[in-house]
């Protein structure tokens, strides 16, 4: 059984990672994976804060956690913002913690990815990057459609990831651009389905709320070209509704997939048809983050190689870095200040 240490207690750490782990532990179906002992938590922003949920035991430092945990039997969840990862990874490695689940994205720039990969090699870290869409039953279903070839050859992927994210964006500067929030999920799926790619075009807009402007946190769009297909991803953080939609165009058919849009309803939907044939509509359970944690805890326990997913996560960061560079506004506009105070700060991931 594996103990748990969660670092970073924001939306990702408490609202996602711990919420899912608590549900998995309570279900009792994976008693070989999850130790029922309290999970330790460390919030670098408030190291003396009291516990914020039942079943958690706070510690004030990585060093204190080391006195209470055996690193060989502990999985660390690193849920700090992607701009604040390398120092904590070094600290964890120095304390002996080497099995680490890192909240997506791995980083927000190429240099940071290179530094993290170098550290992982030097310290023999087993890093898993959170990728629930890659563990999704819906993604597996799409992968089968591509591999089986019943609809012909894949020619294009069109992704829509929309959700209103105004309040969290105003309060939290942990994600530098809209490219760093939702696209890491879908770009990994595009690379899984269609293979490696190069950037074709990218656009990025600001988030505008009245007189307040948050640079680069509005609508993000990128197009990448695979060997035989093209993927287009549009993520709008100012949209009034939430949507996670993927459309695949084949030479002899089409598939339209909707990933679960809310945490209280883990059901995916898939519609697909061959040209000129009736449409098939499937609705099925798809609790992707739970599946991801079960699979990853098991892989870390068994010593399964995680390099393939680490390479994929690194490639996602590289392509998103290309997109940010391509969409950067020339000249003095790069440094345009906000039209009003936003109160943004680096806090927690998610």
UniProtKB/TrEMBL annotation:
<feature type="region of interest" description="Disordered">
    <location>
        <begin position="324"/>
        <end position="350"/>
    </location>
</feature>
<protein>
    <recommendedName>
        <fullName>Oxidoreductase</fullName>
    </recommendedName>
</protein>
<dbReference type="InterPro" id="IPR036291">
    <property type="entry name" value="NAD(P)-bd_dom_sf"/>
</dbReference>
<dbReference type="InterPro" id="IPR051317">
    <property type="entry name" value="Gfo/Idh/MocA_oxidoreduct"/>
</dbReference>
């Amino acid at each position: 059984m594996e103990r748990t240490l969660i670092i970073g207690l924001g939306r990702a750490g408490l609202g996602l990672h711990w919420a899912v782990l608590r549900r998995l532990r309570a279900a009792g179906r994976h008693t070989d994976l999850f130790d029922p002992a309290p999970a330790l938590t460390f919030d670098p922003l408030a190291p003396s804060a009291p516990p914020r949920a039942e079943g958690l035991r706070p510690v004030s430092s990585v060093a204190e956690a080391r006195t209470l945990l055996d690193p060989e039997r502990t999985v660390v969840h690193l849920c700090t913002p992607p701009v604040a990862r390398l120092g904590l990874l070094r600290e964890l490695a120095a304390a002996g913690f080497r099995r680490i689940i890192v909240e997506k994205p791995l980083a927000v720039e190429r240099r940071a990815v290179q530094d993290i990969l170098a550290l992982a090699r030097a310290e023999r870290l087993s890093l898993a990057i959170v990728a629930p869409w890659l563990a999704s039953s819906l993604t597996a279903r799409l992968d089968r459609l591509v591999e089986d070839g019943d609809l012909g050859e894949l020619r294009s992927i069109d992704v829509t990831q929309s959700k209103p994210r105004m309040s969290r964006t105003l309060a939290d500067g942990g994600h530098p651009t809209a490219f760093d929030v939702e696209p890491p999920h879908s770009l990994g799926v595009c690379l899984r389905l269609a293979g490696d790619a190069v950037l074709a075009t990218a656009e990025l807009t600001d988030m505008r709320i009245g007189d307040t402007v948050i640079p680069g946190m509005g609508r993000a769009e990128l197009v990448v070209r695979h060997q035989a297909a093209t993927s287009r991803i549009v993520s709008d953080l100012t949209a009034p509704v939430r949507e996670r939609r993927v459309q695949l165009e084949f030479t002899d058919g089409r598939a339209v997939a909707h990933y679960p849009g809310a945490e209280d309803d883990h059901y995916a939907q898939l519609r697909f048809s061959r040209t000129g044939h009736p449409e098939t509509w499937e609705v099925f359970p798809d609790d992707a983050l739970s599946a991801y944690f079960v699979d990853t805890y098991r892989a870390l326990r068994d010593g399964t190689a995680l390099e393939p997913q680490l390479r994929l996560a690194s490639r996602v960061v590289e392509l998103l870095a290309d997109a940010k560079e391509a969409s950067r506004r020339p000249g003095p506009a790069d440094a345009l200040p906000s039209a009003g105070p936003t109160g943004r700060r680096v806090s927690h991931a998610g």
